[in-house]
Design a protein that fits this description.
single chain; alpha/beta; 5-stranded parallel sheet; 8% strand
Amino acid sequence: MTSLTDPVALGADQARTRLHELTVIDVRTPAEYAAGHLPGALNVPLDHVRRALPEIRHAAGRGDVLVVCASGARSENACKLLAEQGIATATLVGGTGAWVAEGHDLHTPARGARSGWSMERQVRLTAGSLVLLGLVLGLLVHPALVLIAAAIAGGLVFSALTNTCGMAAVLGRLPHNRPRPADLDAALAALRDR
């Protein structure tokens, strides 16, 4: 790996050839992870990365760590956070979306495993619902309530310009997007065993 301030960015094909030697950490929500992840990836959601610092540091001491998300934005944030803690990592350019686009398969757990909507889909549903609510309330209750729709639109523009998503951060804290304690503990134990 290179300097800690400049995480390495691996393309899907590069990561595929090195997959056997990498510790892969998927920072998406448990529902996104269950819908399909890189083979051998361990799920440590982005908001739990600080809790997992000792285990990630241990794994990084034994070999290279690849951080993955859906598009690459959350994994870049995780890599920056880890770099601040002195842990060198790499990120998968384009995330699992690029992985699939290159023709590589995602591992999908057996039936009965927890699965759900991707974070992007959850954000689209929530944003669309709030915009419709603001418009309807503006027509039926008070015209000023269309500002709800304007606020969501402004948030989406800000999200695109900064490559961040506050709504995703809030939605990620909902119970269905939280890791089960046993699942997170199993991922942390697997990191310690690397």
